[in-house]
Amino acid sequence: MYCDALVLYLIHQFRGDRTISGIYHLLKGKKSSQSVQDSYLFHVKPFFHSCDDLDRHSFQTLVERLNVCGWIQSAGSEQMHFILSTEGERQLTRFDLNKLIPDGLCNTDQVNDEGNFWLKLQLSVQTISALQYHQSAFLPITRQPSVTESVRKRIMKASLNRDQLASQLHHELHQLLLPIPLTEADLFAAQLTGFRMTGLTTSQIADSTGKDPYECRILFKSALRRIMKEVAEHKATYPFIAGLMKQTASTLSLTAGETFHLLKEGLSLQQVAKRRNLSVSTIEDHLVEITLKERNFNSSDFLSHELEQQIVETANQLNTRQLKSIKNQLHDEISYLQIRLALAKNTVQKGSLLIGENEETSKR
Amino acid sequence: MVRMKKHRRDEWIHRAQTVLKEKFGHDQFRCGQQEIILDVLEGKDVFAMLPTGGGKSLCYQIPGYLLNGTVLIVSPLLSLMEDQVNALRSIGETNVRALNGLIHPHERSRVLAHLSELRFLFISPEMLRGSTIRAALAKITISLFVIDEAHCVSQWGHDFRPDYLHLAEIRTQFGHPPCLAVTATADERVREDIVRSLELHHVSQTLMSVDRANIALVVQRVATNDEKVDHLCHLLENTRLPGIIYCASRDWTERLADYVRRKLGLRVAYYHGGMDPVDRRKIQNQFLDSQLDLLCCTNAFGMGINKPDIRLIVHFHFPATMNAYLQEIGRASRDGKPGLAVVYYAKQDEQYPEGFIDGNFPDDEILHRSLSELDQGLLTIGNKEQFVSSLLERGVSESAARFIYEKVQNKPIHCTYLSIFDQCKAVINKRKAIQLQDLSVMRNYLTSTNCRRAFYLKVYHEHQPAQKPHNCCDRCGIEFSDFRQTESTNKNDTERHGQILDWKKRLQIIFKEGERADAPIRNKRV
Predict the structure, then answer these.
(1) Is the pLDDT of residue B418 over 80?
(2) pTM summary value
(3) Which residue, A37, B266, B414, B449, has most beta carbons within 10 Å?
(4) CATH of span A251-297
């Protein structure tokens, strides 16, 4: 089953360096710097935020099942840290890894905006369909004030009549769905709501297509990311939908972006923390995110070149990404922040963000 | 003088009936509505108790079209508010808005800027406590001050809302407009509380029976879960739908939905509070749009749901109070046609409501620890959400956390937090005793050997109706064949639309557009 392969693959990539919650947070796309960083460190960036509607209970049930099958085992003595058993390794090789990651999933440039964009798109479709059928009232797919407000603005700004609006949005969606794989296009459209035609949930789509819900989520995300990439690159071709997307290109979270701005002005970490009324450790989290995502960021103020080398060597020697083990091995003057920065920089320099380029995978 | 009054009353009746016909498309008022509306139109304070599905909203909607000014409706539940706004919009009313914690600040400003133009304004009790909003409302003419779900004002009620306690004072600030307090179910004790707390002097009371004669009542006793599922499947195969199946846990809603879909091939979905909000809304809309035959849900579903043709309500597990039970079965057949309510009762099901009652309150250890931590400064109150979430992190249940908040907030300044421990305990014991009492009434209903209807009417101190409905209850005997699915209720095309998976077809229907050529790109300015 797809979900087995998915979780086996992720456990394999995480190598027991994180608890099983780390994988759950990755799939959910938790906006903590830890999860963001993990997605780079373990070369699983496409999966970040790939199953954002996952609930913890069903994920746990799945992990327990893999454990009962004997495909995963505890990593050493640590609770909730898992690695693959030999049988698990064998199971994973039986699955075609290319099928695990549909192409579209790797378009992660707008991952911070995809949740919001999808809500806005669904609400726009629902609203315009209601207008087209002269339905004077409907229960909106979401009540999130920021979403309803921006859809309202978008529709007002278009200054088109009902027919034109419907025809424009239909046209844009049609052009966007045409080139993408049929399964993905169907899965995407089945979730859209119109007049007297409420969209299906992923679990309903799974039931009616016989697919596994995880695969449905991933295929849908692949479709969404293809669409967002296409729209971002050809804004003029898709004027209505482009207007629903966030304008800035940066993948930095809003709050990390603000910290980045202040650091560039020359403020120290402590000063930034004070100015923003946030704790220093939060600002440190931002720093790690900036190091991961902003290639031209110079981190030498926080980490000397020699220190960086030393940390990377130790990490490779121990073959781990666990901060505690690395810190124990090195002397105590080295801070956790420095270890995190060194690991972050190292991932970026290697530039290996996809599977296959990871040494662990190629060994198999 | 008397004649003048009579004359005016006749004129009001005439005008109210015109609005009923023109705006709402009904020919006749339902039982009790006309009397309530007339009292409201004459400027009296009114307390009205109408059963769930009895047409409460109409009692303030009609006066909205006949009185000058804005009808202000205080409503405690966001979903209820949304549904009511929606209902008014769908009859073409544009001057209706809602103010609650969920709306965007821009929307709030827009509403406040156009207050005097509104015919209906729905507001949450929390919002009413804000001084800016109150000042703005004090400037406009409020024709009627409506308190929906008025039982929330009573500490005896199961939904006590502390914010409701300020309503009398707020009403004075608005120039003391006439007040209409409505609720579906309130016993004598709660009714007295409402009238006193809202300061409704010389109030005109209309109490409609809680009885819904068109709903037949069945209690089916079973020994095991397997037996229960068998009975349920047999029932579903032979009964008119759509229907709702209430379960005590999220897990059960999913398991049942899955089983029933596989076994009977019905269009069934599950719904509970643990789902993604968008998925929840989708399922709700699918049910309202008749894309589903059956919904397996927890009691999270149903508030503000207005679907007149639900034919079957099943309780796979029984609820903790008679009140909740009547609320839930009251969602059946609001159009007046026959409906069926079946509850399955197994002895072991009693664990659910009992656990639920315990979970409503902190146990001694948690209460003691929370109070001491407050004294030591390890825990701070801040605002309600912060406090509740820091208790949740400590493993306290949400309702227990709310209970602690309610208590510590009112602590006398000079005392330590720990000093209110005994007082809290006393309140817990008292409230638990009430809830356990309610539960035992429910249990007695299930085990009663007499007429079910007679039983619950007695609970609400009502007299038996002169004539029993044709299909009353399992004790009096009912004809199950009267509820049988007929062939003519085949699903029509619109009901199947939801299932369309072909993306091109789906988009065409959504946008009401014909077959579209793939190639030409029409340039349009947006």
Answers:
(1) yes
(2) 0.81
(3) A37
(4) 1.10.10
